[in-house]
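Students often ask why inverse folding is considered easier than folding. One informal answer: many sequences map to the same fold, so there is more than one right answer. In these notes we will look at a single instance of the problem. The structure comes first.
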């Protein structure tokens, strides 16, 4: 694809992944052209500024109530930039819960970057795949909630991972064949509470949980990193992305977040991908895969002394990875229930309604209570999520 300007649709454009993906487009305008954007609608001015700057063809907002705000912001942004309405064509506007999926099928696109947060990203993921677009996937919940549905629709090579860990694994896997892989090793920073025992976690506050030591991410992903649910979801994601059994996917704590993941081969070799913690690199690589974008991010500074630590995961204080691994092994609707329950518990903790350890404890309880559907279709996945959200809300209300 080098030498070709690739038309891109960006889902979740006003979030952390989305804004950084647009940074890549600014740095490499000869490589990428943005044709469509989708966002929730809460940040109308930012969405409008993105749409006018990149002169996109279509903009989607999930909240129909935000449509007028986005429309007014588009007019204001065009005027601010000195455009008359005849100088720049304002984009087509779509609104509602299905708008992102519609943009994901945009015929002028070649690549869809799904940077949405939560299982609401599943339908746009399926839509992009059905449209034949390459999918740069940051929305791990798509694979967690609907892994078999997604992989059944994806052609070989159609999904490219965006998460730094899975991007690292994809790079390391180029060193050998699938049959030569002994295990995948996902690295975890350990979050802001690394080294604390379970009892010490009772009193942590939302502000403390959102203070990630190495990464700058949105609140949901940051909190999931504090509980290590995020790492557990990444184990499920790695299973579906690379076709490796759960028993061969390990997690190791690496506080410096420089080695983003590793692949161990059958001959004893371990291949690691290292770079400073900066999401611009994996985002750029996913957008250009299998090619690289020059200057996407800084490299490791080898002129300064440094030490990299690798520590075993404390599964007593942080049981989330084991919980997610077991849900993945159970399969069916179990991972979707786990993810939906976790999303509700994240919201409850941030609202000050539950203590920090209750997040994973309650998710485990909801998963245990769920009547598993072994081979769900999309409707069954959505029904399971609805049940999980309702049951989690009931448990939180009772505990309050």
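Output (designed amino acids):
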């Amino acid at each position: 694809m080098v030498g070709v300007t690739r038309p891109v649709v960006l889902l979740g454009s006003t979030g952390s992944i989305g804004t950084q993906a647009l940074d890549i487009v600014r740095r490499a305008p000869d490589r990428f052209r943005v044709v469509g954007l989708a966002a929730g609608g809460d940040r109308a001015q930012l969405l409008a500024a993105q749409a006018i700057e990149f002169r996109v063809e279509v903009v989607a907002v999930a909240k129909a109530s935000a449509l007028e705000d986005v429309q007014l912001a588009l007019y204001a942004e065009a005027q601010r930039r000195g455009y008359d309405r005849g100088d720049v064509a304002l984009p087509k506007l779509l609104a509602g819960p299905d708008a992102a999926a519609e943009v994901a099928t945009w015929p002028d696109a070649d690549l869809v970057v799904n940077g949405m947060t939560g299982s609401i990203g599943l339908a746009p993921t399926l839509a992009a795949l059905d449209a034949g677009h390459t999918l740069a996937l940051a929305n791990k919940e798509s694979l967690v909630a609907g892994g078999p549905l997604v992989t059944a629709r994806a052609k070989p090579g159609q999904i490219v991972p965006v998460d730094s860990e899975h991007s690292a694994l994809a790079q390391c896997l180029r060193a050998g064949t699938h049959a030569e892989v002994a295990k995948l090793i996902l690295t975890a920073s350990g979050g802001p509470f690394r080294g604390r025992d379970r009892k010490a976690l009772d009193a942590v506050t939302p502000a403390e949980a959102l203070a990630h030591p190495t990464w700058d991410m949105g609140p949901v992903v940051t909190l999931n990193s504090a509980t290590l649910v995020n790492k557990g979801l990444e184990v499920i994601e790695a299973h579906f992305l690379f076709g490796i059994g759960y028993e061969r996917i390990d997690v190791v704590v690496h506080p410096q977040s420089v080695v983003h993941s590793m692949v161990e081969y059958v001959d004893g070799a371990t291949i690691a991908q290292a770079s400073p913690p900066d999401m611009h690199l994996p985002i750029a690589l996913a957008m250009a895969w299998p090619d690289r974008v020059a200057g996407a991010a800084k490299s490791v500074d080898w002129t300064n002394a440094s030490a990299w630590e690798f520590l075993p995961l404390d599964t007593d204080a942080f049981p989330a990875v084991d919980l997610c691994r077991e849900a993945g092994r159970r399969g069916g609707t179990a991972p979707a229930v786990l993810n939906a329950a976790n999303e509700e518990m994240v919201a409850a903790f941030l609202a000050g309604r539950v203590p920090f350890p209750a997040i994973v404890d309650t998710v485990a309880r909801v998963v245990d209570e769920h009547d598993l559907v072994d081979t769900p279709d999309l409707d069954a996945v959505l029904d399971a999520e609805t049940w999980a959200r309702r049951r989690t809300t009931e448990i939180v209300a009772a505990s309050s």
